[in-house]
Design brief:
By secondary structure, this protein is mainly β. It has helices at residues 2-17, 60-65, 167-174; strands spanning 70-72, 77-82, 89-95, 101-108, 116-122, 130-135, 141-147, 155-161, 179-181, 186-190, 195-203, 209-217, 222-230, 238-243, 249-255, 263-272. The chain has an eight-stranded antiparallel sheet, covered by helices on one side. Strands 2-7-4-5-13-12-15-10 form an eight-stranded antiparallel sheet, with no helix packed on it. The radius of gyration is 27 Å and the shape is globular.
């Protein structure tokens, strides 16, 4: 009797040893990392952060790959017309093959009405492309790009409508901090070498907007300059992405209007990488050449 009871106990124990383990309860909760939207002073944010990727037409490389650029020869003019009144903003992207970029960008609305104009200069149009979004409410509208460089300096241009989840939405999602720049004043924004590009938003309370945006790398070394005029800084705010490869990048925003015309500037990191381009300028700290 005792022997048969022992055999029965052993059989039950052996069967339970091969029984499948109970599954842990599943959960749909996502692990969220505590990233800061402002990474201008945060050197810990690198590849894989919330600003490292782009979605919904916000990635500049995807825009160039999925578009058909128009070549604007030196001294020539090209126009893009948008008759659909539902198009409230357009993307304007300019680049070269590594040569300087010098162009005038204007928005035409009706005869002899230019509510938005820009003068764009880039030292190297391949390393630092020009990327902006301009407002086009109440169409029809026409965007005109004039290459004011010499014949030897052509440029490639992409002008297309901006979607609700496009470039402007990507800029607005990261450039959340705003500060007032009074007329005649300026603000500077230094960035770490890990920041590959910077998002900029300029607007007013409905008054005209006159400003100059400069990308400095070193003392008085302008890599990119944008002189901007907007008839109504609330109706047509200015969105831009400035690429900042290398180290020692400083964005300077100057309000060139009188003191009665302040503007509101939001400048923050747009795309953060691992600082791979840092070594391109020959400056490396803590490592041997």
């Amino acid at each position: 009797m005792k022997f048969s009871a022992a055999l029965s106990l052993l059989a039950v124990t052996g069967a339970s040893a091969f029984a499948p383990a109970a599954k842990a309860p599943s959960t749909t909760q996502l692990a969220m990392s505590d990233y800061r939207t402002s990474v201008r002073d945060n050197v810990d944010v690198g590849v894989g952060g919330p600003l490292a990727g782009a979605m919904g037409g916000r990635d500049l490389a995807d825009i160039w790959d999925n578009s058909s650029p128009v070549i604007v020869q030196g001294g020539s003019l090209r126009t893009w017309s948008f008759a659909n009144p539902s198009i409230e903003s357009v993307q304007v992207l300019l680049k070269t093959e590594g040569r300087p970029l010098d162009a005038d960008v204007e928005l035409w609305q009706g005869p002899d009405n230019t509510p938005h104009k820009m003068r764009v200069y880039v030292e190297d149009g391949a390393l630092r492309t020009f990327n902006a979004v301009i407002g086009t409410p109440r169409g029809p509208n026409t965007v005109a790009i004039r290459n004011i460089g010499q014949l030897e300096f052509p440029l490639d241009a992409v002008v297309r409508p901006d979607r609700d989840d496009g470039l402007a939405a990507g800029i607005a999602s990261v450039a959340t901090r705003s500060e007032t720049i009074q007329g005649g004043a300026l603000r500077t924004y230094p960035f770490n070498p890990t920041v590959d590009s910077v998002a900029i938003i300029l607007k007013t309370d409905g008054r005209p907007l006159n400003a100059r945006i400069e990308l400095l790398q070193g003392p008085n070394n302008n890599k990119q300059v944008v002189e901007l005029y907007t008839e109504d800084g609330l109706d047509r705010p200015f969105f831009a992405i400035v690429e900042t490869p290398g180290s020692g990048n400083v964005v300077r925003v100057v309000n060139t209007a009188p003191v009665e015309f302040p503007l509101y500037a939001s400048v923050d990191a747009y795309r953060v990488g691992g600082g791979g381009d840092w070594a391109d300028d020959g400056l490396m700290i803590g490592r041997a050449f």
